Amino acid sequence: MSRKLVTMGLAASLTITTSPWATGDEPITFPEGYRSWYHHHTTVNQPGHNPEANIGIQHVYANPAAREGLKTGNYADGAMFVVDRFKIADGENSTLRHGDRKVIAVMLRNATKYSETGGWGFEAFKGGDPNQRVVKDMKNCFVCHIPHAATQYVISKGE
Questions:
Q1: Cis (ω within 30 of 0) for the bond into 51?
Q2: CA 76/CA 119 separation, integer angstroms
Q3: What pTM did the predictor assign?
Q4: How many CB atoms lie within 10 A of CB 53?
Q5: By the 8 A CB rule, do 82 and 41 touch?
Q6: pLDDT tens sequence across 72-94
Q7: What is the SS3 assignment for 50-104?
Q8: Which residues are CB-contacts of 79 (< 8 A; sequence separation ≥ 6)?
Q9: How far apart are CA 94 and CA 80, in angstroms?
Q10: Which domains does the chain have, with CATH numbers?
Q11: Sign of the C-alpha dihedral computed for residues 111, 115, 117 and 122 taken in this order
């Protein structure tokens, strides 16, 4: 029995050592309450939009620090944007409506921690599930933001 406890303890310490928290590199957390933030805009990305995975209806929310950045053009650490993206579905009477939620995408400002991606960290949660992280390499997200260097890599403009 004591041998089993030692083995379990060793396995636990190995798990902790290799987790992102052991290095102080906490992952971006799910943005609880983001729908009460400032709703910056809604767009409909139609077929032909690049990247194709972003086709759908999307709502962009900004926390208070991101909203201030939209006003001033300078984004402080802690600024966060959330893109809530849905499939497009046909509604009644020739309308379009939200279909299933595709993803909740998050962009978090930390100029030091995310210096390789313009000072922004990226994460996405499949279907809006906090336990289904999608982003494997933030540089893949950053590619779309590179042309927006003049606005600190933020695609959304102004308030």
A1: yes
A2: 10
A3: 0.81
A4: 13
A5: no
A6: 999 999 999 999 999 999 999 99
A7: CCHHHCEEEEEEECHHHHHHHHHCCCCCCCEEEEEEEEEEECCCCCEEEEEEEEE
A8: 62, 63, 65, 66, 68, 69, 108, 109
A9: 35
A10: 33-151 (3.50.70.20)
A11: negative
